[in-house]
């Protein structure tokens, strides 16, 4: 059963809105001081560590269900011709409870781009020890891997993946890519089975890894599920607590928003912090004119799908292997393309009862999206636009990734286990047809970032400083993927955890 159902009737030193990949980390770290009282509010169910339902705990089930998802869709139909499902976990552990559990760090070049925005404290040399300290993994080089942190990361071996996934790795090598032994090690340009935060088939989300039974037993930590946040309460410009969607008030000395790349900007805007003209349109009094929601980034995702021959149609486990490489337009030391091999596909849609997906992505997109409020109603879905392919470079590079995945699709031994290409299909032969197919079906990788970006003191497009402190007010921080100043070239979950670990000591 979910834990904690009522909000304690007292003031707290810290209240955290959102118990996901960042919020769970903060709750653990900030409650380590027994003299500090911490309240963690999660809009979804707050399950005990060993009581998560199968749809959350089973690593083969990806994307959650209606009970554990916010149900968001983008407003991209005018640009793309279709909207995009924006999956976000609504459960203690957040999207780390519904994702594919890929545990890949961002790269040094990603943090060089952050530092170039005038941010201190976010260079690779500064964040690398934090990445190591948050994980426990029994394999890999001691120089690169952590052994005793809360988050278990396990490198999947060739023997642990399906026959068709092994064929994908071997065909990628035959196509000229290097075999990588550890994407969290010294080299990343190549192909390898995934590193995953999965143990014995169980997806270890942050509600499990960070909020253990021992942590939850702390008398100074309260965790409340089913608590959806409306807005921040202020005395003048000092945050003093939160108002929930049901009207309840929570008083606190410090307020931290960890509601994610959609939730955190929405709460800020409902609180009067955001683009002044937009807030006035909704009759929200403007406390602080700020560029909230204006730099949303997401990785575009296209599914190149193959039906597997019956003798090779195993689809368990679903997560398998990935190519991480560079396009012809990548800058020095950037790896801006993924081809992600999974079996996240309904086998009933395959003529053979088995399929493999080679999902292609541009991991350093230039197109910029946005988050806006549809209304003042805290339960109204935000207006989200990814604006995929607004920058022509993104579509050109996506075409490179899809051409690579299709070439691997024809290369032995992968080509030997394939019955037929399902999407885009054998009738799609030339670049014009492929371009139309990609735009028609592009999806999101579920890695939204940068809607409340960090920046240096001279960055007019930043909303928060390098510690997530919101400019123009006191006692309010944002700590989650929304504050990344730019999207990183890897799946974002481990980097989001690192961001929370990095900032937590600064929240004294």
Automatic annotation (TrEMBL):
SUPFAM superfamilies: FAD-linked reductases, C-terminal domain, FAD/NAD(P)-binding domain. Residues 89-112, 260-274 form the Glucose-methanol-choline oxidoreductase N-terminal domain. Gene3D superfamilies: 3.30.410.40, FAD/NAD(P)-binding domain. Keywords: FAD, Flavoprotein. Its cofactor is FAD. Belongs to the GMC oxidoreductase family. This is GMC family oxidoreductase N-terminal domain-containing protein.
